[in-house]
Amino acid sequence: MRKIIICFCILFTTLSLKAQMISGISIDGGNIPILVYIGGNQMCLPSTSCFIANLRPDYYTVEVYATRRTRPGERVWKGERLYTERIYFNGNGVKYIQVRGMGGHRPDRPDQGAHCPEYGQYDRVMSSQLFDTFFNKMKNEPFSSDRLKMLEAALVNTDFTCGQCLRLVKLYSFDDDKMEIMKLMYPRIVDREAFFTVIDVLTFSSNKDEMNEFVKNYSICR
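Below the sequence we write its predicted structure tokens.
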């Protein structure tokens, strides 16, 4: 019996030591399914958390994107980027990262969508890659009327974020043109609580007041 107890203690100690040796980077998305990339390589299937084990000491570029859970055979959807950072991992212990600006880790740069609406609102949002293509087509279109037609067609089946709206608004120089785009896009913006960042690009305070009134009246009507 004594030998059994001794063997059990040795086994328990060995397992405890092995557990302590586990090291890597742990990424927590809260209740949001995420995709994690390190050095441009996808590390996990869609999940609310991802653990990359036993990394050697080095600098790593970590990118985290919003996604949704997929069924077998369904293509993985890569949505808005929630986090990007080049970090140093010393090879020991576990480095924890919480996305969406929690836990002291900075989110992506503000001009690329630092504000992140709730995951459930992302189903119809134009992906970052597709939006870049759409933005360039809008930018290269010489006639404002044709730009407007392109945007109206996109809005039929697509939602946008404030960050995307802001980039489109900045294609225009005059407040009247900017306001036309804002009013057209606002009903299809998923993170309206951040729309003040779009309104802020207007030059004149009277136009800002008009847009704030538009937002207020739209909310009341809804």
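The radius of gyration is 23 Å.
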